Amino acid sequence: MKKTFLAFIVSIVATAQTSQSQTVKDQFLAAITKEIQRIKIPGAAVVVIKNNKVLISEPIGLAEVAFSVPVDENTIFSINSIAKVFAGTAIMQLVEAKKVNVSDPIANYLNNLPEKWQKVTVTQLLNHTSGLPDIEDLENGGLIGGKGEDFAWKKVQKEPLQFEAGERFSYNATNYLLIQKIIEKISGMSYLVFLQKNQFDPVGISEKVIFGNSFDVVKNKTTTYIYYLKNKLTNEYVKSEKLYEIKEELSPILQADTGAFTTATALSKWLLALEKGIFISDNSKKQMWTPLPMNNGKYGGFGDLLNAYAYGWPVIQRTKHPAIAPIGGGRASLIVYPKDNLTIILLTNLTGSSPQEIIEKVAHFYWE
User: Fold this and answer.
1) Tell me: the pLDDT tens digits for 265-314?
2) 171-176 mean pLDDT
3) Contact 29/322 with Cβ under 8 angstroms?
4) 180: number of CA atoms within 13 Å, CB side?
5) Cβ(323)–Cβ(336) under 8 Å?
6) CA angle 357, 125, 135 (to 5 degrees)
7) Is the per-residue pLDDT at 194 higher than 80?
8) Whose CA is closest to 57, among 366, 266, 277, 363?
């Protein structure tokens, strides 16, 4: 009789917990959908991982507006600079293999660099405090010089330093171009082969993570949109009510920096593997997520919410609910809240949607 009563009580508690979980899920999805609709994001995919368990994996809206194609679990989104998390993890894998020391100057690993570059450390590349000139042409797009990869690489090596290493934070592609070169030199593999062998194959997502241009024709890849149009006379972007398709050409020499495309499901599998220690140890992950101060003791970052930067992972430094928050293209984000055992992924197909801000507005539903 006592056992029957105890089983009844356990059943009641379990039912109440399930009901409560469903209520939180409904409230979370209602809140995030409201934000997506407010910003007029055509399509998105959201994943919530709590205590290493996927609680939510939901497609929202349209992957292709012109033909009313809905987002589903196979929809591939542009995640741009979130690609750096793969590079940061790859470096830590080489660190664990005792093939790289992040405190070393890059001249220990790469030959024929300009003299002023040689004392820059691997860490300073990873956290964008190297002071190196940028190989990207931020004003006109593409690589500097407009004459291809080889020309740009030769040209950037002749450019002056922006500042002495460690003095400031300056987010630029040259840093991760060199990270890519280090990975390839030390491993003896192309960068993408290294990722496939050491990160993607072990979790079965190799076919779901691709690198290329926004205009490449790939099955299930969503179109990338924007509400801004560049004024050819002023060179400024002007907001419109009309939706435009965006075209981005992304150089293969910058694959450690940008140019990644994947599904929310594949990204969640990769993150779960990282959390479970499949790629690197907990100590290495902690090191990868810990920003180091600049020479003046302050931390470099994008400012405001993303106020520090670690090894390819932007960081939210604060007392309550600190987080690691990679972003990509102004359209994709994931935020890991370590103290809350929580990760939220939000991939969208709208440039300028700032999904990290949306995540921050709704994360409280699952904070501890």
Assistant:
1) 999 999 999 999 999 999 999 999 999 999 999 999 998 899 999 999 99
2) 97
3) no
4) 19
5) yes
6) 85
7) yes
8) 266
What the block records as the tokens of 186 is: 């030390």
Written as six digits, the tokens of 362 are 């709704």
Average pLDDT over residues 239-266: 94
The two tokens of residue 289 are 């997520």
Q: Flag whether the pTM goes above 0.90.
A: yes
CA distance 260 to 85: 11
Q: What is the largest CA-CA distance in the chain?
A: 85
Q: What is the pLDDT of residues 121-151, one digit of tens each?
A: 999 999 999 999 999 998 778 899 999 999 9
- The sign of the torsion formed by the CA atoms of 151, 157, 159, 163 equals positive
Read off the tokens for 156.
């950037």
